[in-house]
Amino acid sequence: MSARIHTILIIGAGGGIGEAVARRFHGLGKKIIVTGREEDREYLTQLARDLPGVGFRVWDVTHLDKLQSEVKRILTAFPKLDTVFINAGTQSYYDIFQQPTADAEVIRELTTNLTAPILISQAFASHLFDLAQSGVKTNLFLTSSSLAYFPVPFYPAYCPSKAGIASFTKILRMQLDSTGNKNMNVVEVVPPYVDTPLNAAHRVQTDALQGGEDKAVQPMPLGEYIDKFFTALEQTKPDGSLSDEVGVGFGAQGAAIWHESNRKLLSASGMAD
After folding, report:
1. CA angle, corner 70, sides to 53 and 142, nearest 5?
2. What is one term from the GO cellular component aspect held by the record (predicted)?
3. Which of 22, 34, 128, 176 is the most exposed place for a label (fewest CB within 10 A)?
């Protein structure tokens, strides 16, 4: 894995998984650029202090009208960028029938989790593809979730947005495969429930819906997840390319079940052996 990644942009690194991934990649000697929203500026500044050489950009990906110009600025500053890790995400808890959330909040969640990642992927795709065509190994990571495969009633916008990322990543990889370009990898990152600030504001409510903290599914500690993620990342294909999905725990189970079911359906229809 290490030989494939030299300069990596991590979008959504103002805490949680994104920040932890940035710290680990920096420890591996990689050139890191991180992004976060304006409210993450303090975290990003501290991250840059902690990790010498890290560059950061304040970038709210929901401002879609500024997306292309931001991508252009990043590529101008880092023309040898070989890896993009799209990790930005938000999660809201609500009940459509009892206490629906405002339309604007639903739109923001879907924009952050699905629309923006798709547009960002498209914006960086030609750069990564062209670099790969020249012989450089390139990579595009998109973070979905175990909830893409196992939806729960707590998150009526989050679950479908992550299912959309899972589907988009597979489609993007299919299109890439059809080009014959073997130097670019498209990877779906599939975390389980991890102890991060993502659901901190509503963890009590979701625990209560599962019968209380003693009965509720508890998150994997962030450090444990990062260790397992990087172990899984090293499990490359025989040709040295990255796995199509890098899942941990319930995330790995969800991706495996999808693949097995999909294989059976394709075989039954004569579209695969």
Report:
1. 75
2. membrane
3. 176
The encoded tokens of residue 22 equal 């940035």
Enumerate residues 6+ apart whose C-beta is below 8 A from 225.
17, 20, 191, 192, 194, 248, 249
Q: For residue 122, is it left (φ>0), alpha (ψ between -120 and 50) or beta?
A: alpha
Q: What is the DSSP letter of 215?
A: T
Which residue's entry shows tokens 């894995």?
A: 1
The upper half-sphere exposure of residue 203, i.e. CA atoms within 13 Å in the direction of its Cβ, equals 14
Domains contained in the chain, number = 1
Yes or no: say if 93 and 158 are a contact pair by the CB < 8 Å rule.
no
Measured between alpha carbons, how far is 73 from 248 in angstroms, rounded to an integer? Answer: 34
Is 273 a domain residue?
no
Please indicate, yes or no, if residue 232 is contained in any of the structural domains. yes
In a domain, 75, yes or no: yes
> Which CATH number is 112's domain given?
3.40.50.720
What is the DSSP track for 218-238? Answer: PPBPHHHHHHHHHHHHT---T
Residue with tokens 């990649």: 25
CA atoms within 13 A on the CB side of 182: 5
The Cα 169–Cα 144 span in angstroms is: 9
pLDDT, tens digit (0-9, with 9 covering 90-100), for 143-194: 999 999 999 999 999 999 999 999 999 999 999 999 999 999 999 999 999 9
The HSE-up count of residue 194 (CA atoms within 13 Å, CB side) is: 27
CB 132 within 8 A of CB 183: yes
- pTM of the full structure: 0.94
